[in-house]
Design goal:
The protein contains eleven helices and 14 strands. It is an alpha/beta fold and 337 residues long. It has two domains: 223 residues, Rossmann fold; 59 residues, Alpha-Beta Plaits, CATH 3.30.70. α3 packs across α4. The chain binds adenosine-5'-triphosphate (ATP) and magnesium ion (MG). Pfam families: ABC_tran.
């Protein structure tokens, strides 16, 4: 596997008279390898767009090392720009142009053969609507036109910032199918989102960002497995007596909202059914509680952290010990790329 995107220790601070200094990205790391559909997850304002803008040279980073398709970015990005399609700022189209004309102009400007326009319209499922004016397009169709424009160059790497934003379930599903078909055709996709169910369905790898820092990264199933507490949902006729029996067997049991129990500490579900069955309590339901990305995301990015010191999966960009302040001065690191 070769790295398609590498980001190490990216830091970006915004300065404004009104809000003062704001650290948007704070020692962030990201690794996307060839062939991945990589989800980039984080709450609102966690630094996703800023990271992607910095990667593509749309905003100047304070420090950090970045490469795209092996070239240092943004310095040598032009060398690989022809192989990268990106939608980071929602593109504006002329409403009076048809989808076809829009893409034809972009193709001509980018030195792409006009025949490619039909191909990308087909790819995003707009081939039968290409002759209509963009102002008559739904939001989902405009999103697909944007993706089509990013595909004109037949990119090896596609970077999409919140492509599912504002789409209805059918639109989200189409976007998902499109990303899958691109991945099947060998395109590496980096897609940011805060729609967790979507990321779980589409992506094989994920990086979670919180307050400008990476808090989890890896294969989706491994990130989920790392948060599996091996608990079971248990339904029995007498939950209180069941809880007592489970406690006596050194298991944990907590009431669930609808009269069921959440039982932990059992290596194997048969332990639970045996403990209860032996006392004449028959288990009506015994379901393993698998973590989903939403619960992991909330655990990693939500409450329970020390303010300003979100967890980081590795040491990079960690605040100096004793610092509990989100504004950490790492300026002395300098730009090393
Ligand atoms: N041009 C800017 N000037 C000042 N602050 C900015 C600017 N752009 C972003 N920020 C701040 O940087 C932080 C990260 O913003 P960013 O847009 O990267 O978050 P995001 O993860 O993309 O959020 P969302 O999910 O809402 O799109 C926020 O606190 C935001 O207010
Ligand atoms: Mg954003």
């Amino acid at each position: 596997m070769s790295a398609v995107i590498e980001i190490e220790g990216l830091r970006k601070t915004f300065h404004s008279l009104r809000n003062g200094r704001r650290v948007a990205v704070d020692g962030f790391d990201l690794l996307v390898e060839a062939g991945q559909i990589h989800g980039f997850l984080g709450p609102n304002g966690s630094g996703k767009t800023t990271t992607l803008r910095a990667l593509l040279g749309l905003v100047r980073a304070d420090s950090g090392r970045m490469t795209v398709l092996g070239e240092p970015s943004p310095q040598l990005l032009p060398r690989v720009a022809g192989r990268v399609g990106a939608i980071v700022e929602s593109p504006q189209f002329f409403g009076n142009f048809t989808g076809y004309r829009t893409l034809r102009l972009l193709a001509r400007a980018g030195g792409v053969p006009i025949s490619r326009v039909h191909e990308v319209l087909e790819q995003v499922g707009l081939h039968d609507r290409g002759d209509e004016r963009v102002k008559g397009y739904s939001l989902g169709m405009k999103q697909r036109l944007a993706v089509a424009s990013a595909l004109l160059k037949d990119p090896q790497l596609l970077i999409l910032d919140e492509p599912a934003n504002g789409l209805d379930p059918a639109g989200i599903r189409e976007m998902r199918d499109l990303m899958r078909s691109l991945a099947a055709a060998g395109v590496t996709v980096l897609v940011s989102s805060h729609i967790l169910g979507e990321i779980q369905l589409i992506c094989d790898h994920v990086t979670i960002i919180s307050r400008g820092r990476r808090v989890a990264a890896g294969r989706v199933d491994e990130v989920l497995a790392g948060h599996d507490r091996h608990e079971f949902l248990v339904r029995v006729a007498e939950p209180e007596r069941a809880a007592e029996l489970l406690f006596a067997a050194e298991l944990t049991a907590a009431a669930h909202d609808d009269g069921a129990l959440v039982v932990g500490g059992a290596s194997d579900p048969t332990v639970i059914s045996r403990v209860l069955g032996e006392q004449g309590l028959w288990v009506g339901e015994l379901t393993p509680l698998r973590p989903d990305l939403e619960s992991v995301f909330l655990e990693l990015t939500g409450a329970g952290q020390h303010p300003g010191v979100p967890r980081q999966v590795d040491g990079s960009g960690l605040p100096p010990s004793g610092s509990g302040d989100v504004v950490i001065d790492l300026d002395e690191r300098g730009v090393d790329a």
